Amino acid sequence: MVHREIEHLLQLLDEAYNRAAWHGPNLRGAIRGVTAREAARPPKSGRHTIWEIVVHAAYWKYAVRRRLTGSKRGSFSVQGSNWFAVPKDRSEKAWRADVALLNSEHKLLRKCVSSFEPRNLDRPSHGSKTFARRMIAGIALHDVYHAGQIQLIKKLLKDEKSS
Fold first, then answer.
1. How would you write the chain as a 3-class SS string?
2. How far, in Å, CA of 147 to CA of 58, rounded?
3. Residues 6+ apart with CB under 8 A from 3
4. So what's the architecture of 4-162 in CATH?
5. Taking the model in full, what pTM does it have?
6. Which among 43, 70, 140, 162 counts the fewest CB atoms within 10 Å?
């Protein structure tokens, strides 16, 4: 049986990522239907692309999971940390692979949280001063923030196309 608070945190993660939400599109919904070409295009010079945001979100799901489990750094499947450049291969296949990476990292984070010891929710995570409860809720908020950002980028790209 899943602890009540762990269950609540899992619901937050899912609503922010891929379950129906009252606040509008979740992160997965925001990228649904986005093509590789759209994902690679910055809304303005020097601004992040949808593609960069997707890999960034995957990275932070990985980072939170790593901090919750105490795993060592350096095992993320893309070289680097935090923000990653759009790859040279901007094909639909490459885009779908990075969306699949985001999905995979969400599932791994979810699995980690579902087996997390409730008594450790009010303890700092490994390598952080932030309590685990706050870190888990924070990664859900991170998804919602970037979902909104992607929605704005899509609108900017659409407006640019029609003008």
1. CCCHHHHHHHHHHHHHHCCCCCCCCCHHHHHCCCCHHHHHCCCCCCCCCHHHHHHHHHHHHHHHHHHHHCCCCCCCCCCCCCCCCCCCCCCHHHHHHHHHHHHHHHHHHHHHHHCCCHHHCCCECCCCCCEHHHHHHHHHHHHHHHHHHHHHHHHHHHHHHHC
2. 13
3. 118
4. Up-down Bundle (1.20)
5. 0.94
6. 162
Nearest to 66 by CA among 126, 6, 134: 126
Q: How far is CA 5 from CA 10, 38, 41, 66, 75, in A?
A: 9, 38, 40, 20, 29
CA-nearest of 146, 29, 30, 128 to 83 is 146
Q: What is the pLDDT of residues 63-116, one digit of tens each?
A: 999 999 998 888 899 998 899 999 999 999 999 999 999 999 999 999 999 999
C-beta separation of 114 from 65 below 8 A: no
The pLDDT tens digits of the residues spanning 44-63 come to: 888 999 999 999 999 999 99
Residues 6 or more apart whose Cβ sits within 8 Å of residue 15:
21, 26, 140
